[in-house]
Design a protein that fits this description.
Helix content: 40-55%
Structural class: alpha/beta
Largest sheet: 8 strands, parallel
Shape: globular
Order of helices and strands: HEHEHHEHEHEHEHEHEH
Radius of gyration: 17 Å
Low-confidence stretches: none
Number of helices: 10
Strand order of the largest sheet: 7-6-5-4-3-2-1-8
Length: 219
């Protein structure tokens, strides 16, 4: 199956999940995760009409996305991997959405850079719904306080929440928790669901799903 066919198949599955959940068509955005793939692997997906992409690493993204963005206007690039504060300048310059704001140091670094560069990528707070020590993200019980700090003290507009449930657990309760936290925080966007569970995420209200291997194939 070609990459174009896989992309179409994923879009069909998202549309079907929206219908089953009685959600409006197009209410869940596909973020095509292109990490570890070269520009030449990504171009056919762009040619097939995909405009929203996700990357894990700032440095890797700098090697391919400035050129790809110059070739095709209207691309929206999401940072979905952990951000180090020493990379915040590059992240603000390149990404349109940063989904992994997960501690005060990063939030402050982003606020400084956004003011310096006059650029305002949209921001999501990453929540560690499974309380996994090896995983980035703010604890669920700290989420509201952290969102308020970002908004009130640092002047950051937090648009949504993001999570990556533990691989071996049923993702449904994690997606439900993220949706509950979003309501408490007064944010509208929910980035949740990956290749293995994005239909479940749509059912629980995901406004964007991050799908890589189901489109690009195995890494």
């Amino acid at each position: 199956m070609s990459v174009e066919e896989r992309l179409a198949q994923v879009k069909d599955r998202i549309a079907k999940a929206e219908r089953i959940a009685k959600r409006p068509a197009g209410s869940a955005t596909l973020v095509a995760v292109s990490k570890t793939f070269e520009a030449d692997d990504i171009r056919p997906v762009i040619a097939a009409g995909q405009r929203v992409f996700g990357e894990n690493r700032v440095q890797e993204s700098q090697g391919k996305w400035p050129e790809l963005k110059a070739e095709t206007p209207g691309i929206e690039l999401h940072l979905i991997g952990p951000l180090q504060s020493n990379k915040s300048a590059e992240a603000v310059a390149l990404f349109d959405v940063i989904e992994t704001v997960d501690r005060e140091k990063i939030a402050r670094a982003l606020a400084d850079e956004m003011e310096k560069q006059g650029r305002a990528p949209r921001l999501y707070v990453q929540v560690n719904t499974g309380l996994e020590p090896q995983k980035a993200g703010i604890e669920p019980k700290e989420t509201l306080k952290f969102v308020e700090l970002c908004r009130n003290e640092l002047g950051l507009a937090i648009e949504g929440l993001m999570c990556i449930p533990p691989a071996e657990e049923n993702p449904g309760p994690h997606f439900a928790l993220l949706a509950k936290l979003a309501r408490e925080c007064g944010v509208e966007k929910l980035s949740m669901g990956m290749s293995g569970d994005f239909e479940t995420a749509v059912e629980f209200g995901a406004t964007s799903v991050r799908v890589g291997s189901a489109i690009f194939g195995a890494r």
